Amino acid sequence: MVHRLKLSISAQNDEDKVAEEVTRLVDNGRWQLSDGNALEGVFKFRTFKTTWEFMNKVAEKCKEQRHHPEWTNVFNRTAIKWTTHTPRGLSLKDTYMAKFCDDVAEHLGEQYEADKPKGDETLKVCSIDAAGDCCARKEGSK
């Protein structure tokens, strides 16, 4: 359960509704609250192609909603952070887009990991170091 006082909610949003939606998302274990004003999550898929398809579907919805994430991608993982910059804080657009990401990921067969990183570690899983040898030439290959 997310404590209401830990939330920084964007002005002109129904505070109770945002708190309810954030609590639902965090309690499901797929999203973490970051600094009280953002939702962060990591999505992992079997292939880069599926990961890219996920990102394209989210990007299409972003254009429609006029709302974008902060995100990074390395090979088959995408780390996403939803927050509203103006006015600053969490908004119903953030919770809507986080839920949309969950739905698309489920449809595309996300390889859900219950032990997902928390807090500052979330975006680090999509660093170059986290890619491992996915981009390195295999021994014996030309």
Automatic annotation (TrEMBL):
<keyword id="KW-0456">Lyase</keyword>
<dbReference type="GO" id="GO:0006729">
    <property type="term" value="P:tetrahydrobiopterin biosynthetic process"/>
</dbReference>
<dbReference type="InterPro" id="IPR036428">
    <property type="entry name" value="PCD_sf"/>
</dbReference>
<dbReference type="InterPro" id="IPR001533">
    <property type="entry name" value="Pterin_deHydtase"/>
</dbReference>
<comment type="similarity">
    <text>Belongs to the pterin-4-alpha-carbinolamine dehydratase family.</text>
</comment>
<dbReference type="GO" id="GO:0008124">
    <property type="term" value="F:4-alpha-hydroxytetrahydrobiopterin dehydratase activity"/>
</dbReference>
<dbReference type="Pfam" id="PF01329">
    <property type="entry name" value="Pterin_4a"/>
</dbReference>
<protein>
    <recommendedName>
        <fullName>4a-hydroxytetrahydrobiopterin dehydratase</fullName>
        <ecNumber>4.2.1.96</ecNumber>
    </recommendedName>
</protein>
